[in-house]
Amino acid sequence: MSGWRYFVCPVEFNNDSKRFQVDCEPSELFQLQDYTLPSTTVRLHPFQIHSIVLSSFASIMGPFGGFFTSGFKRAFKIKCLMATFVNVYIASFIRGPNPSKVIQQLLALHIDLQLHIFNSLKAHLTEKDFLPALGDVMA
């Protein structure tokens, strides 16, 4: 299914055409890559490796559902262990950084915190020579 963009690209609404569209360059998760094993080389999509991890977790936890999972859920007050695992796994290993979400979270902060973050980022970028120092701009 990774050959069809409909399955790997987000569906977005186009305001001009008033239609949903699926158009993107598939991420590296959906592009074949070579993996070298001790005796051979295997061509897989990276999402297949993630699928193996998730299905392994589900199949290992399944038989112990009555004992281990129940105790674990009681100890941590979690109602659905598999959903929690999937959410943590996706956030940790699959989903990349999203600058628009960072900006959204920044704008939700109080103005004092926004200014503090701005000044810290400006100092960092100036220190790394990505921004000119204030004296350099005036000259």
From TrEMBL:
<dbReference type="GO" id="GO:0004605">
    <property type="term" value="F:phosphatidate cytidylyltransferase activity"/>
</dbReference>
<keyword id="KW-0472">Membrane</keyword>
<dbReference type="Pfam" id="PF01148">
    <property type="entry name" value="CTP_transf_1"/>
</dbReference>
<feature type="transmembrane region" description="Helical">
    <location>
        <begin position="47"/>
        <end position="69"/>
    </location>
</feature>
<keyword id="KW-1208">Phospholipid metabolism</keyword>
<keyword id="KW-0443">Lipid metabolism</keyword>
<keyword id="KW-0594">Phospholipid biosynthesis</keyword>
<keyword id="KW-0812">Transmembrane</keyword>
<dbReference type="GO" id="GO:0005789">
    <property type="term" value="C:endoplasmic reticulum membrane"/>
</dbReference>
<keyword id="KW-0808">Transferase</keyword>
<protein>
    <recommendedName>
        <fullName>phosphatidate cytidylyltransferase</fullName>
        <ecNumber>2.7.7.41</ecNumber>
    </recommendedName>
</protein>
<comment type="pathway">
    <text>Phospholipid metabolism; CDP-diacylglycerol biosynthesis; CDP-diacylglycerol from sn-glycerol 3-phosphate: step 3/3.</text>
</comment>
<keyword id="KW-1133">Transmembrane helix</keyword>
<keyword id="KW-0548">Nucleotidyltransferase</keyword>
<comment type="pathway">
    <text>Lipid metabolism.</text>
</comment>
<dbReference type="GO" id="GO:0008654">
    <property type="term" value="P:phospholipid biosynthetic process"/>
</dbReference>
<comment type="similarity">
    <text>Belongs to the CDS family.</text>
</comment>
<dbReference type="InterPro" id="IPR016720">
    <property type="entry name" value="PC_Trfase_euk"/>
</dbReference>
<keyword id="KW-0444">Lipid biosynthesis</keyword>
